[in-house]
Structures are given as structure tokens and as C-alpha cells.
């Protein structure tokens, strides 16, 4: 593993502002700034120019760092396919900083590879299932609220993909409303309004 070329990959959705947090984590892991690639796009597919540039650089003497697995991708099938491309075709290593067990440099034997692949499959499946469940709960909450006579105005804009995460951080007191609104790329009043709606919907489903 000594002498491996280190690369980092960051993905920031158009509504997110966590670029600095990802970059700090990659630099602290030892990745040179000039070897960090970033796309500011949705995680729904792999049509990303910087990611494609990065793939062309990877070989069997490379290690790719990402802060968390959802920065690499959010779709279960595509994520697992890209993991296969990187580790099997490119024969590069991957290190997921927030999940130390997903470090293909460890246990470079059949069992170690098998365990890593299984953990990845499980994590990506759970993450995608949770996103699907969140959407379903929201729809169920709307239907339940309408039955109780709650009136909804014109259709609201879709919530940013990071809203649930930011809402949880705000409701737990980790961040204040102004920070939460900025991270969701919306006015403070809009964040409070949508947070209130989210709370009503989640209470109504209980």
C-alpha cells in the first residue's frame, strides 16, 4: 500500500453547501488538494464530468477516498456497479472515511473482499430504502392530514434532497435555523414553514 497515488472525490448537490466539510476530511486523510475531484450535481446517476476524469486516473496503484458512501452515489444498483468498476476493473482501493470497515486496503484476501462487498451492498440498500420510505411517509402524511381537514395550498416545491438530514440536525439543536436555511438554500421563513409541515406530516402518520 505504500506509495499508492491518493485521490479524493466530492459530490455536492446543487442545493448543498457542505463542500468545505468534505474537503477538510479528504485533506486530513492525506489526499493532496490537487488530487481532489468535485462534481456539483445530483447523486442520481454517474453522468458526472469530474468523476469520469477521476476514473481515467485510477489504476492498481491508486486509492480513492470519499467522506461518505453517499458522496459516491445514492442509487443502489449504480453505486454497486461503480464499486465493482473501481475495485475489480481498475483494481484501485477505496476508503470511505466515515465508515472505516469500507477500506479495501484491509485484509487483501478473498474473505476481506467478500466482507467489504457485503457491507457496501447492505449500506447502499438501506440508504436507498430509507429515502423511499421517507417519500412514502410524506405521501401518507399528506393523505392523513387531508382526511383530518387540513387544507393545502398550491403544490410546494420539492424539498431539497438534504432536507431530512438538515431538519434532524436543526431539531436536535446541532445547528440554528439560519444555518439550516442556508444549507437547504431557502429563506429562513420558508425553512421554518417546511419544517413545520414536515413535523405535522410525521406526527400524523404515528
Description:
By secondary structure, the protein is an alpha/beta fold. The protein folds into two domains: 5-126, Resolvase, N-terminal catalytic domain (Rossmann fold), CATH 3.40.50; 153-204. The protein contains eight helices and four strands. Strands 2-1-3-4 form a four-stranded parallel sheet, with helices on both faces.
What's the layout of helices and strands?
Elements: E1 5-11, H1 19-28, E2 36-39, H2 49-57, E3 62-66, H3 69-72, H4 76-89, E4 93-96, H5 110-147, H6 163-171, H7 177-183, H8 188-204
Parallel strand pairs: 1-2, 1-3, 3-4
Helix pairs in contact: 5-8, 6-7, 7-8
Relevant terms:
206 residues; alpha/beta; 2 domains; 52% helix; elongated
Order of helices and strands: EHEHEHHEHHHH
Shape: elongated
Task: Give the structural class.
Answer: alpha/beta
Largest sheet: 4 strands, parallel
CATH class of the largest domain: Alpha Beta
Low-confidence stretches: none
Number of domains: 2
The second-level CATH architecture of the largest domain is: 3-Layer(aba) Sandwich
Rg estimate, integer Å: 19 Å
Helix-residue proportion: 40-55%
CATH superfamily of the largest domain: Resolvase, N-terminal catalytic domain
